[in-house]
Write a structure and sequence with these properties.
- With 230 residues, the protein is of the alpha/beta class.
- The chain has a single domain, classed as Nucleoside phosphorylase domain (Rossmann fold).
- The chain is built from seven helices and ten strands.
- The protein has a five-stranded mixed barrel, surrounded by four helices.
- Strand 2 and strand 3 form a beta hairpin.
- The chain starts with a strand and ends with a helix.
- Bound molecules: adenine.
- The site of adenine (ADE) has 14 residues, from strand 5, strand 9, strand 10 and helix 6.
- The site of adenine has 14 residues, from strand 5, strand 9, strand 10 and helix 6.
Length: 230
Amino acid sequence: MTLAIVAAMREELAAVLALMPAETRSTVAGREFFRGRLHGQEVVLVLSRIGKVAAAATAVTLIERFDASAIVFTGVAGGLGPGVQVGDVVVADAFLQHDLDASPLFPRHEVPLYGKSRFATDAALTARLAVAAGAALPQARLHRGLIVSGDRFVATTAEARALQAELPDALAVEMEGAAIAQVCHDYGLPYAAVRTISDRADDAAHGDFLRFVQEVASRHSAAIVAHLLA
Ligand code: ADE
């Protein structure tokens, strides 16, 4: 049983990597994978890099080459839901690709030939992750629900409002989660994801995001992972 822990950027995982000094490193598909034990559990850590293609390639490599039996993603996201503020935590129940549109052949957002637009996360692993996030960050507000992904950093209030209008139950937006959800669906692998809100995907998103990833993201990931594996 090897749990894969994935983040997009080094800033989101540095403190978790530091917890595992005796790891074995290998490079596959241009990415460094760190294998070792954390709190007695076999883990493999990796930085996917940014975007859906990078995330999907990472997930396939984790499954095919590193025998991952479950994947947990940790990182940051832009808040979309009205009550989802910077510093809050969102645990995903499902993912959707907000920039996927093969209409009129298929309904907007539907993944062609899958017959659906939403990919649920694993209920049991998600429940464990939500408990871990709540224990790690007791001062943060915790939300559960839909996270949407797309190959765009959403950094204008106009675009954030358009996404809210189109997908009113979307809590947060990021750039990787739905790709991993689809790969895990294909392989029948449990998947769960937690995102701390770094910005509101609005006109101030760029500065808020950079400040947050430099100052807090990695510590939050490390605290949540420590509680998940404890
Ligand atoms: N990840 C963190 N903030 C984001 C944003 N505003 N858009 C896309 N991905 C993000």
